[in-house]
Amino acid sequence: MIRNYRDLSRLQMEKVDKENTIILIPLGALEQHGNQAPLGTDDIIAEAMVRHVVDRFREIGREDFPMLIFPVIPVGLSTEHKNFCGSITFRPETYYHILYDICESISRHGFKKIAFLICHGGNAPVVQVLSREVRADLGLMAFVISSGAFSRPEVKATISEGNIHDFHGGEMETSMVMAVDESLVDLSVSEAGEPTSFVGLKKLAPYGGCTISWMSEDWKTQEGKPIGIGGNPKGANAEKGETILKVSAEEIVDGLLEISQFKL
């Protein structure tokens, strides 16, 4: 059955089926998301995504799914945002060792499978390296799941026409926060951002096949002021956010079902 890791007693934890239970670890961040959205956007999304995942399991009649939900880890690797007020980041080596130590503890107690839910893209490179190392060192199968189904047509349809640079802190992320608590967002102060240094280039981009590790300062307003977000959040609303969360949860659940059955 699906339960919160922290809610179990030691005695209850001893009785958990370690061979078949997945520990889901949501990874958030504490960093700037433009003028309009809270610093804890990724944590808020992580918590909401977990709730939608649980709801999705109920919808498909799988309340018995063997999973323990770890508390959201609220700080991550946010080097790209550290020059913007309020952002907090671990160093890559610090973040790696924090996650490694968690994995080592989980492995010590006999669990075989964990799944990292990436709710901040900047965490992904460290987690990718870590997942292979803990498999080699500990025999722990560490799976990596993206929290946003951004390629799904239903999700793409939430982006306003002409908002071609929607990215970090943009319309989609702002909408997801609004789906949780609209009072946390102030669209009246929002500003659009675009990767001005890359506009007009054919191959080199802030992400993709030919790239450079971007920093928030690369995303600027039309006036040239560093704003640190991609796209225009003005079109964000709670309904769009609910769609993104729901569709993304469907993708996550499909992945977790296959992880549960996966054998080497």
Overview in brief:
This protein is of the alpha/beta class and 264 residues long. The protein has 7 helices and 7 strands. It has a 5-stranded parallel sheet, with helices on both faces. It has a two-stranded antiparallel ribbon with strand order 6-7.
The total count of helices amounts to: 7
Structural Rg: 19 Å
Q: What is the straight-line distance between the termini?
A: 24 Å
Shape: globular
Question: What is the overall pLDDT average?
Answer: 97
Strand content: 5-15%
Alpha-beta content class = alpha/beta
Instruction: Describe the strand arrangement of the main beta sheet, using strand numbers.
Output: 1-3-2-4-5
The stretches of 5 or more residues where confidence is low (pLDDT under 50) are none
Report on this model:
There is one protein chain. With 264 residues, this protein is α/β, with parallel strands linked by helices. The protein folds into 2 domains: 2-151 and 246-261, 3-Layer(aba) Sandwich (Rossmann fold), CATH 3.40.50; 156-241, no CATH class. It contains 7 helices and 7 strands. The protein has helices at 10-14, 41-59, 92-108, 124-138, 153-156, 171-180, 238-261; strands at residues 2-4, 22-27, 67-69, 113-118, 141-146, 194-195, 219-220. The strands form 2 sheets. It has a 5-stranded parallel β-sheet with strand order 1-3-2-4-5, sandwiched between helices. A two-stranded antiparallel sheet has the order 6-7. Helix 3 packs parallel to helix 4 (124-138) and helix 6 (171-180) packs across helix 7. The chain is globular and about 60 Å long. The mean pLDDT is 97.
